[in-house]
Amino acid sequence: MMNYAIYCYKEDYKCLELCVGQIRQADPDCLIYLFDDGAAPLLKKHIPKGKDIIYKKTYFQRRGNLNGLECVRGMLSCMQDIPGSDPVSRRDSGFNSIRGGLAMSPRNLRGGKKGVSHVGQMTLPLFRA
Predict the structure, then answer these.
(1) What backbone phi and psi angles, to 5 degrees, belong to 79?
(2) Which of 2, 23, 9, 24 is nearest to 103 (CA)?
(3) 3 pairs with which residues across the strands?
(4) What is the pLDDT of residue 107?
(5) Which one-letter DSSP state was computed for residue 47?
(6) Cα–Cα distance between 9 and 16 in angstroms, integer?
(7) Which tens digit of pLDDT belongs to each residue from 38-70?
(8) Beta strands in 1-129 (DSSP E)
(9) Gap between the Cα atoms of 72 and 60, Å rounded
């Protein structure tokens, strides 16, 4: 199974549902972790529903649009808190809808790698304990 980490805030409701829908279509057995910005959280009515959604409010410094060392530490901490040893793919709520699909299929990401994190169009290893 694949896990997806999406870092979001209140304005992301405009494209978040489409992003979640595309992930569900490409990988119906996944879990989607929404890490919401506690300083500007989504309204409750804008949080996608479903048993595959795990919503958590976060309070690390995001410095605008996920910038800086403290932000990276906060994002990595969130991903390390995802249970299990399945791969984690970091998604941007607007990334899928702008480009029309996942950068790599979940099948390709599972191919013997311990974990994978997507940052924009880059693929970085995510080492999981």
Answers:
(1) -70, -35
(2) 23
(3) 31, 88
(4) 52
(5) S
(6) 10
(7) 999 999 999 999 999 999 999 999 887 888 899
(8) 3-8, 31-37, 53-58, 88-92, 116-119, 122-125
(9) 9
Q: Alpha-carbon distance 43 to 84, whole Å?
A: 29
Of 46, 47, 44, 43, give the one whose Cα is nearest residue 33: 47
- List, in order, residues 6 or more apart from 70 with CB less than 8 Å away: 60, 61, 63
The kind and range of the H/E element at 14 are helix 13-26
Q: Are 9 and 93 in contact (CB under 8 A)?
A: no
pLDDT given for residue 33 in this prediction: 97
Give the chain's largest Cα–Cα span. 38
Q: What is the pLDDT of residue 125?
A: 44
Distance spanning both ends of the chain, measured CA to CA:
17
Residue 60 near residue 37 (C-beta atoms within 8 A): no
| Eight-state DSSP code of residue 97 | H
